[in-house]
Amino acid sequence: MAGFGIAGTVAFHRPSVSQVQVNLTAGEFLHYRIAVAGNNPIFNLTREGALLWSEQDFPGVVGPFQRKWPAISAELGSRGDRQKLAISFAGPPKTYDVVVELRDAAGASLMVLQDYNCTSPDPGDFFFQSIHVFYV
């Protein structure tokens, strides 16, 4: 188990993939899933600094939070963008379970890119994980 921030810990359930090619013409996509233990989750997914997704997209939902990328064609940037998921531990202690998969057009998993959980009792902690996404 690795640490981050002041009091955070992260457990990777398998090696994380730092880059992936997504064949959009074949219908492939990335699937993000975040489950949270604790109140008031705070997270966001960005592409080269542009916000794609956050907890604010789910008012009143307790999770799990799920999202497909790309959801719309406007989310496509250059063919080699970096997507970054940021998680905050502000407020009560929280645990986040995160799974990112490459899926085919039917939604079947082709590859698990990231599978980890992170937790921290310190409200000042943040955790970041990124994937370099190439698409055709």
Verbal overview:
The protein is mainly beta. It contains no helices and 11 strands. The chain has strands at residues 2-4, 8-12, 19-22, 29-37, 42-47, 50-54, 65-69, 80-88, 94-103, 109-120, 126-135. The strands form 2 sheets. A 6-stranded antiparallel beta sheet has the order 1-2-10-9-4-7, with no helix packed on it. The protein has a 5-stranded mixed beta sheet with strand order 3-11-8-5-6, with no helix packed on it. Strand 9 and strand 10 form a beta hairpin.
Task: Tag the structure with descriptive keywords.
single chain, 136 residues, 5-stranded mixed beta sheet, 11 strands, 0% helix
Query: Helix amount, in percent?
Result: under 10%
Which descriptor suits the 3D outline? globular
- Terminal CA distance: 35 Å
Class by helix and strand content?
A: mainly beta
Strands across the major sheet, in which order? 1-2-10-9-4-7
Report the uncertain regions: none
Total number of strands: 11
Q: Note the run of SSEs as H and E.
A: EEEEEEEEEEE
For the CA atoms, what is the radius of gyration? 15 Å
Name the assembly state: single chain
- Mean pLDDT, as a whole number? 91
